[in-house]
Description:
- The chain is an alpha/beta fold.
- The protein folds into three domains: 4-177, no CATH class; 187-454, 3-Layer(aba) Sandwich (Rossmann fold), CATH 3.40.50; 466-661.
- Helices cover 40% and strands 19% of the residues.
Amino acid sequence: MCSAFYSNDIKTFLNQNEDEIFGIIAKNDEFDSACKQKDAWIAQIRLLKNVLNRYSNGSIIFEYTIPRVGGRIDNVVLIDDTIFVLEFKVGNEIYTGSAATQARTYAIDLANFHEESHNKTIVPILIATDAPDYELQINKYKNNVYDVIYTNGNNLTKIFDKFKKLFSSQTQLDKWLNSRYVPTPTIIEAAEILYNNHSVDDISQNEAAENLTKTSTAVQKIIEYSKQDHQKSICFITGVPGAGKTLAGLNIAIENQKTTGKNYSCFLTGNQPLVSVLREALARDDNKRTGIPIGEARDNVKSFIQIIHHFRDESLKNLDIPPVDNVVIFDEAQRAWQQAQLSNFMNEKKAAILNKLPDDKRHKILSMSEPELLIEYMNRHQDWAVIVCLVGGGQDINTGEAGIQEWFDSLRRSYPDWKVYVSNKITEEEYVGNNSFDKLIEGLNCKTVEELHLSISLRSFRSEKVANFVHHLLNNEKEQAAAIYQEIKKVYPICMTRDLNTAKEWIKKQTEGKNCRYGLIASSQAKRLRAEGIWVECKCKPEKWFLEEKNDIKSSYFMEEVATEFDIQGLEIDYALVGWDADYRYENGHFECYKPSGSKWQTINKEDNRRYLKNAYRVLLTRAREGFIIFVPKGDDSDNTRLCKYYDELWEYLKDIKIEEIK
């Protein structure tokens, strides 16, 4: 596929006749566009010939195809070191918000991911040819990117002149067209990159990737220090949702997988869907690249990504032998089990193993929480050991999950000689809850390392502020949520509707012509969405939901099978349709938590369970990389479990935040 349908220097463009230019564009159009599009090209050629006749230097591009992300920019004009991104709406009588968003998005994508566009002035322009004149407004949007300029074409020369520079170098057309374009990959794509012996630097070229590299480097220094000084250390990596905690962990595991004496490492997680999806994705990729049989590829990847429960069970076989790994990475460490939860599980499921142990050792094991048991296992190393805990704030979503407090309590109780490293953001409420930071680290040998916090979202690559928006929305902080929404809506669409089919059509429209994965997600407690056709109790197979193509009915693309917070935590999609049920309900000016109980809803009073439900919605609302739409049912007063008032107050709350409604 050509990177552009037409590209040339402006001088040649002006000397070519209209038919010749159109012929080149049409020849490279593999999509056999309709007559309306062809008429639009003719109109663009005529307008741009008229406007550009005073610019002898520069280049022009028609239909620049954005690699991997998909979509085509109508025109790119390169004058001096300024890049003009033109979004044409030939025949349009109004300037639409969606067209402006398109132009702005293209400009930001170029600034973030197109190497030859880095540090250059980028100006998106929306040209609605039949619209009225629009007062010229030139405003910076972010860094080197300007906000969208609106015009019907009459003053396009004036706009170009505003950015004319007396002394500047000319952007070279061939170099620009052949530039590397490195969009932020999904967690699955990034894992494949790392698994194939590339570095974090190869994943992306934006601020988030730099942040990720600094964190990985900081942990490597801690590992080297621990090894050289015969020290046992534990470090806590924190980060906003989608900042790359899992990628940091995968990178650390891969870097240390090369064996030097006893120096092995592995990536551990209790997130079965994450394990299933990443293992299958890496195995398929290995099979495709090398021709290795798929079964062998699956076996190879098992040692790299392990279920934490298997690691834990291995610790019980012989209570004196340490694991082969000196470095272990625990993903979603806040989800490790409390003592009671682990004890109940061990008695019910692992009785055969426990019964082989002497009474005193069995009682000791049953008195431990999961964090304490895992630290005890690593503490058996005589020389050195490092535990890396990946911690998501407000991400504990299931009964019996201890949060990070239990890790610190376990260290204080039993392993105060371990060196503890934390980020400077672990003091925030979403990590420490109602406790103070001083109380959290009391009695421990603790050091703060700023680089252990990932502050910029990789997932929401169009805006790192999405996580903050969701935080304020769920905390009933309307003004703060509304303010952030106004900032991000131009580049990260968040909409709402009361019609499921409308939501699905919106998703399809947003992803048309793009290489994007989208899907339907909802809370595991959203059981009355079944009346709307969203059945959370019908479990999807995560590896099929995330990996299969558009023609597979089990894939996310069909928006028939729904993924819950348990299926999608730690993973991501590009666009999400979020179903919001009456479990997390807005009433009397605040959020209330309910669980389905037979033919009624039952109030959730236990604080832990209320936190789990709130965090479930936090997970759901931060899974999309490019945008999402919220579906709020209208309800039905003839059904006591779906009364209209259960949903109406939530709808009004979202309206107060000014979230765009799609009808």
